[in-house]
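Bench notes, bay 3.
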Amino acid sequence: MKDVPSIEALTARGAHVTCTTEPQCLLDDMFYLSGEIPRVTPFERGLPAHYQQAADGNWMPDPLLMDERFLMVKVEGKGLIVFTACSHAGVVNVMKHARECAANTPIHVVMGGFHLAGANEKIIPDTVQAMSEFKLRTIAAGHCTGWRAVGALANAFGDTVLDPLAVGKRYTF
């Protein structure tokens, strides 16, 4: 993998870098970018085999991937649309935190990768069960959700709620 450019290298090319663990409101408060996502579910525990490279160049365990964030927007008359990354924090942890950050506004849509493939397949039943509490109108499951999880979501919520993401697909809410 290529190294991510340093803040200094990005700044030298004209970027304005904000490096924080705090949440951010963007574009006149239209979008909310989360800070660290609390890990509150007993079953979503990140990726046990994940490592990160420390500043000194050494590799160290990083199973919780605490630098993951989500983006959300509140749509008038609908509720929240929550965009996950790969949901290393757990899609249920993401949605619980999003709802809390938006004063318990209901989540209308969750969209992104849910990272339920491979080693995380064992938490599919718990995840599907926990997602039912949100009464979602659309579950747009993306790249790393995995086919077994997509099947479980389809069985639980039906194809009027589950709508797998694809490159170039458009959503209107």
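Next record in the batch:
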Amino acid sequence: MARSFWSGYLKLSLVTCPVTMAPVISERDKVRFHTLNRKTGHRIRSRYVDAATGREVDDDAQVKGYPRGEDDYVMLEDDELDSVALESARTIDIDAFVPKESIEWIWYDVPHFLMPGDEVGVEAFSVIRDAMTQTGTVGISRVVLYRRERAVMLEPRDKGILLWTLRYGDEVRDEDEYFKGINDKPDPKMLGMVTDVIAARVKPWSPSMTADPVQKHLLEIIKAKQKGVAKNKPKAAPEKGSNVIDIMDALKRSLGEKPAARR
């Protein structure tokens, strides 16, 4: 049985079923390092110190502060931070449905697997999942995750449901601020050539396309050092040539055509 980090209830009107949740993304296999004392080989421990006095601050003396001016903060206690959480922190109450395609991917944050919590709740869970599939909709709700109330989207996926936390409104910037002024009418001939270049490079999607070459080389270095052999990646030779790019010539080379001779 897959491990979960959250358990609660999925609710739609009068239909309720127990569910469990687990993150889709795992960083368990990421290469991680500890900071060591080079002379002793011992791990270095981080401590909180007072920025003015330099003295270490005990855990019970630490408090969250919101800056309101230079060296001036509003202090918030843990119970005050906890008070803003939802009362029903363990219930995902679906209060709205929207067409799946109406939410752009830019709002998607972190994906989670949502599963029935027990055999009794499987039927209710399956009915909600399949109803969303048939109507082409996704559910919108709110739930407390990672100590904060989050808007979430529930999307049917295979036998389960994918729960996405959605980004807050002030996190997504207005694209017009960055894209305005960009030429939106490229040369038709160049457009056709680039289309041909893309067509020649279309491949089926594979997770191997997202392989991490840095982690792979780090593991090779670690393995070599464990054997007492240092292994450094050779540096690539800098490319020579002009920085001025003739787009048409570059496209012709990409398509295997011979560029026209320059006058």
